[in-house]
Design a protein that fits this description.
Keywords: Cell membrane, Disulfide bond, Glycoprotein, Glycosidase, GPI-anchor, Hydrolase, Lipoprotein, Membrane, Plant defense, Signal. 32% of the residues lie in helices and 11% in strands.
């Protein structure tokens, strides 16, 4: 029995989109302030289609937890800020919460962590006095159910609890929260859990009054004269993200704790903002998110902890258009609710995420008119002679079943074969080039370093600047319909 459990655990660790060979993973947050939120079943199907292996929920929604059953996806469930006070004041309430929201779904739903509140110290400071009590009571309830080794308890905190994060070596927690943070760290140490950090270089940059360059926030290389160096350690920081994580490690160390790892529970970049938010745009969001994925999956830590991977959850899956606040607050999602990407994003296996492909790809624009996309798709699969078999129903690139996904595959297949003889990536201004490999799961786009080279077609029309007709695909946007990916790994560890 133990042998079977061990093998099952290894397979779970190996399964999924955002898992690298060495163990670092990228997960994703799923918010629900969405006016056209897909059903829970469709959402899980979308996660599977993109091979997402770790998700964080902000609550413990019963429908979502049931939909995640037998998916293999590791789930972090959330105690809402509204629930913290009651749980912190009553161990019986904590026990009931565990029984209802965790024990009832294990083992079929792979719950591995509980996030107690969200930025409690800075968002609902009146609950701070009972935060650690809530964590302790939840942990004791897990112990009583013999689940404490499988499910870890922690609480996500923002960078605001560290008033001066740079230079990282001198960073420290806000002393007004000192006793509470010390108790949190002691709890984490005692229960072998981890510190949950929400790290947003977007805010570090936009609120920094020009102190740091945009490239530093976006993981872009800096010229030698602009290198960011900690004057005390002489560590070079190539990204604000690394500096934020390291500032947190130094802050933990200042409280005389060691051996506590950090998991970044939120990080992302908004892709659209108001007139006073010029840095919230698709270009920056695409750059940040793809570079974040590459950074995390190189399996290394920040300069002070180079051997500790920075496991991270992207904020977020869908745009939460019902959230209050500025325009940017509603536009952090990486996918639209119909399954198409907001911007070219490598939601795929780690070798594609890390950009091993040396090519340029042609994909549909996120804001392209659906009718024009359909016309372009028809043209590419007809007069353009693109190989559109993989996007037919039942084939490896059919899911997600959206015009944007199918058009991206067809546009790219045409472009890869025809660019050498003048073929363009335009399609009536509905397409764009990207260096990010759009392949995902078993769907390998033409030109990917992981796809077979297909070519030799006789040039037909060269530049489809106004693509119309020619091939009826019947690939209309419908309700999300997905199949469980046929992703099976055979592991010979005998």
């Amino acid at each position: 029995m133990m042998h079977k459990k061990w093998i099952g655990g290894v397979l779970l660790l190996l399964f999924g989109m955002f898992t690298s060979v060495l163990g670092a993973f990228i997960g994703i947050n799923i918010g629900t302030d969405v006016s056209d939120l897909p059903s829970e079943t469709d959402t899980v199907a979308l996660l599977k289609a993109h091979q997402i292996s770790h998700v964080r929920l902000y609550n413990a929604d019963t429908h979502m937890l049931k939909a995640l059953s037998n998916s293999g996806i590791e789930v972090m469930v959330g105690v809402t800020n509204e629930e913290v006070l009651g749980i912190g004041q009553s161990p019986s309430t904590a026990a009931a919460w565990i029984n209802k929201n965790v024990a009832a779904y294990l083992p079929s739903t792979n719950i591995t962590a509980i996030a107690v509140g969200s930025e409690v110290l800075t968002s609902i400071p009146h609950a701070a006095p009972v935060l650690v009590s809530a964590m302790n009571s939840l942990h004791k309830a897990l112990v009583a159910s013999n689940l404490n080794y499988q499910v870890k308890v922690s609480t996500p905190q923002s960078m605001d609890v560290i008033p001066k994060p740079f230079p990282p070596s001198t960073a420290g927690f806000n002393l007004s929260w000192g006793p509470t943070i010390y108790q949190i760290l002691q709890f984490i140490k005692n229960t072998n859990s981890y510190y949950m950090l929400n790290a947003y270089p977007y805010y570090g940059y936009t609120e920094g009054n020009g102190i740091f360059p945009l490239d530093y926030a976006l993981f872009r290389p800096l010229p030698a004269v602009k290198q960011i160096v900690d004057p005390n350690t002489l560590f070079h920081y190539t990204s604000m993200f690394d500096a934020m994580v390291d500032a947190t490690y130094y802050s933990i160390e200042a409280f005389n704790f060691s051996g506590i790892s950090i998991v970044v529970t939120e990080s992302g970049w908004p892709w659209f903002g108001g007139s006073n938010e010029p840095d919230a745009n698709t270009g920056n969001a695409q750059t940040y998110t793809n570079n974040l994925i590459r950074r995390v999956l190189n399996d290394s830590g920040p300069p002070s902890q180079p051997k500790l991977p920075i496991n991270t959850y992207i904020y977020e899956l869908f745009n939460e258009d019902k959230r209050p606040g500025p325009v940017s607050e509603k536009n952090w999602g990486v996918l639209f609710t119909n399954g198409s990407s907001v911007y070219p994003l490598s939601l795929s296996t780690s070798n594609q995420i890390t950009g091993n492909s040396s090519g340029v790809f042609c994909v549909a624009k996120a804001d392209a008119d659906p009718d024009k996309l359909q016309d372009g798709l028809n043209w590419a699969c007809g007069q353009g002679h693109a190989n559109c078999t993989p996007i037919q129903q039942g084939q490896r690139c059919y899911l997600p079943n959206t015009i944007a996904n199918h058009a991206s595959y067809a546009f790219n297949d045409y472009y890869q074969k025809m660019q050498s003889v003048g073929g363009t990536c335009d399609f009536d201004d509905t397409a764009m080039t990207t260096t990010v490999d759009p392949s995902y799961g078993s769907c390998k786009f033409t030109g990917s370093s992981n796809s077979s080279t297909i070519g030799g077609l006789t040039p037909a029309a060269i530049a489809p600047s106004s693509a119309v007709g020619g091939w009826s695909s019947n690939l209309q946007v419908s309700n999300l319909q997905y199949l469980i990916p046929a992703a099976f790994l055979v592991l010979l560890l005998l």
